[in-house]
Design brief:
This protein is of the alpha/beta class and 458 residues long. The protein is built from 19 helices and 18 strands.
Length: 458
């Protein structure tokens, strides 16, 4: 559901706008002054902001700049009872999306808000696509390994890439399942077509069908325009179903039809849409066992498990650790503008002997922290996040040390760093099992996923 923050010191105006917008399918948040608006924006990001130009504690035009400084880059629609050419020019120069004169024309307001929200969603989609493209370019290099396990996997990728055969990639969290999926796509005849990733564990069940297959305008509350789904966007390309074991029985039925018939309807639609897509899937769960327990459809299992690639955990291919360390240390050194040329034998020995419950993803995070902590051209033992008994942890196992090292940062940045440390430790304690980690932290799986995405732990 799209969200609108309404900022106006007149309570009656706020309530009127709330009623109009909520009747049109929007969720609204109300603020009667700049202070309240800023407090809301510190924890929430709306799709657009309706802002009165004269507030008791701030000037609306100047407040737009404050929003930008907070990292809030959403369309702002100014409302004013003092419409002049000068105000219009100032508003546009400051970056306002539009401005409306009071008394408000509610039809005009609704159209303006709908346009602003749609524009913001398009901007987000473009940003997501750019991130996907950057990730894709980077992911090719991440497929690293000289071990027998990895060499066998490279051979399978080479054999299946140019066909449209469905592949199921299995492995523990952090082993690089998405990297393998991208390698298959990048070496296929579809390489110049979309690669659309769908994380089946992060999308709420009530939104899943719309995300996969799209919806028509008016299909449900908040559907103010027609939206294509992921399968439609992936036409002639590849759909990667990550964490496919998290799909509900209802969605499994819908997916099976797409795999069999190559067609579907948008939610609320009657037109049959045909697509040409290649399906790749991944899971860290035992799908065969789920089938036996009645939690995963047997017919869908055999549809996705035509070719099976099993990624080994990092502890079973330790000969690849030096290669991976070299890659991620070099990458982190470039990121943080550090001159790192190597790693000491003592540090290498600790890293090679570690069990790596978080697999390659954990190794990547350890490399990044070691580069940040280093004070010379080589990574030393003291640069590694070690506990008193020599185990790897995040933050050196000492919160005070972490705070001292990060001196000069804001409280918000320090708290975020500590939160990341706690989450990473919980992931390690639970062998990167997200369900158990979420339970240990008192979170649901989707909240944990959101935090892992925020802190680059995916």
């Amino acid at each position: 559901m799209s969200t609108v923050l309404i900022v106006d010191d007149e309570e009656g105006v706020c309530e009127l706008l709330r009623d109009v917008l909520e009747d049109a399918g929007f969720e609204t948040w109300l603020a009667y002054n700049a202070k309240d608006a800023i407090e809301i924006l510190e924890s929430k990001t709306p799709d657009t902001i309706l802002l009165d130009i004269r507030l008791p504690d701030a000037d609306g035009i100047q407040l737009i700049e404050e929003f930008k400084n907070m990292g809030i880059h959403v369309p702002v629609i100014l409302m004013t009872a003092f419409g002049t050419t000068e105000i219009a020019i100032q508003a546009m120069k400051q970056g306002a999306h539009d401005y409306l004169n009071k008394p408000l024309n509610l039809d005009e307001l609704l159209i303006t808000v709908q346009k602003a929200v749609k524009m913001q969603q398009l901007v987000s989609e473009v940003a997501t696509l750019r991130e996907e493209l950057d990730h894709e370019a980077d992911s090719v290099d991440n497929l690293i390994g000289q071990s027998r396990h990895m060499q066998d996997i490279f051979k399978v990728i080479g054999k299946v890439a140019d066909s449209d055969i469905t592949v199921l990639i299995q492995g523990e969290s952090g082993t690089g399942k998405e990297v393998v999926a991208r390698a298959i796509h990048n070496n296929s005849r579809r390489r110049n077509r979309p690669f659309i990733k769908i994380n089946c564990g992060s999308i709420p069940e009530h939104l899943m069908e719309s995300e996969l297959f799209g919806h028509e305008r008016g299909a449900f509350t908040g559907a103010i325009y027609q939206k294509p789904g992921k399968f439609e966007l992936a036409h002639n390309g590849t759909v990667f179903l990550d964490e496919i074991g998290e799909l509900s029985p209802h969605t499994q039925v819908k997916l099976l039809r797409v795999l069999q018939e190559k067609e579907f309807e948008r939610v609320g639609g009657t037109k049959c849409i045909k697509v040409d897509v290649r399906i790749l899937a991944a899971t860290n769960r035992n799908l065969k066992q789920m089938v036996e327990e009645g939690n995963f459809r047997e017919d869908l299992y055999y549809r996705v498990n035509v070719v099976n690639i099993k990624l080994p955990p990092l502890r079973e291919r330790k000969e690849d650790i030096p290669l991976l360390l070299n890659y991620y240390l070099s990458k982190s050194a470039r990121k943080y503008n550090k001159d790192i040329s190597g790693i000491s034998k003592e540090a290498m020995a600790v890293l090679k002997n570690y069990n790596w419950p978080g697999n390659v993803r954990e190794l990547k995070n350890v490399c990044e922290q070691a580069v940040v902590m280093s004070r010379g051209p080589a990574i030393l033992l003291e640069d590694l996040p070690l506990s008193g008994n020599g185990d790897l942890v995040l933050g050196n196992g000492n919160a005070n040390t972490s705070i001292i090292v990060n001196n000069g940062r804001t409280l918000k940045e320090i708290v975020a760093d500590v939160e990341k440390q706690v989450i990473l430790k919980a992931l390690n304690d639970n062998q990167w099992n997200r369900q158990e980690t979420a339970k240990a932290l008192g979170l649901n799986r989707r909240s944990l996923y959101a935090k892992m995405k925020e802190y680059n732990l995916l």
